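The records we work with from here on pair a chain with its fold. Taken together, the tokens spell out the fold as the letters spell out the chain. To see the layout at work, look at the sequence and tokens printed below.
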Amino acid sequence: VRAEGEKPVQSGRAMLWTHFGISGPAPMDLSRSWLRPKRENRPVTMTANFLENKNASDLEAWFLGEAKKNATASVQKALSKRLPARLAGAILDREKIPEDRTFAHLGKEERKRLVRAICEWPVPVLKSRGYNFAEVTAGGVPLSEIDPKTMASRTCPNLHLVGEIIDVDGKIGGFNFQWAWSSGWVAGAALAGA
């Protein structure tokens, strides 16, 4: 995710294509980085890299190596060993590169377009699915207003706050449950000792 005025944010976790758009751990982890700038009317874009732990330089080197090893090999068949075959076909189609193109006939500009398409596929996000589909909420009472030893409010006496009512959220995968349980335990222990 690239938002104006912020460092790019990325996730190496799974992404699913669904009937309504994208889902899965990566989009859920990145949604906050997309939603905040969008609500502030700042430019924000999302791209996907289809090769885990590989960047454009790695893929460029792979293309050049494949061309040296077997110039007559089909680019689509070689890509299909690294990507799902339908995805490889869709990328070639989008870049207007014939499916029967061999490495010997793959031009430098075509190769660069393929590298960019595989490592920086644009993911046009139109909107969030909203609160009813949210897995985690962001925002809440600032941590500076909470005593971390008791979870007591520093602004409202005898009020203890726990879980997502406080401005704490983590990646999908149980972190938010753990925060709710841990902060609840701290508050309960403080109240039991009071």
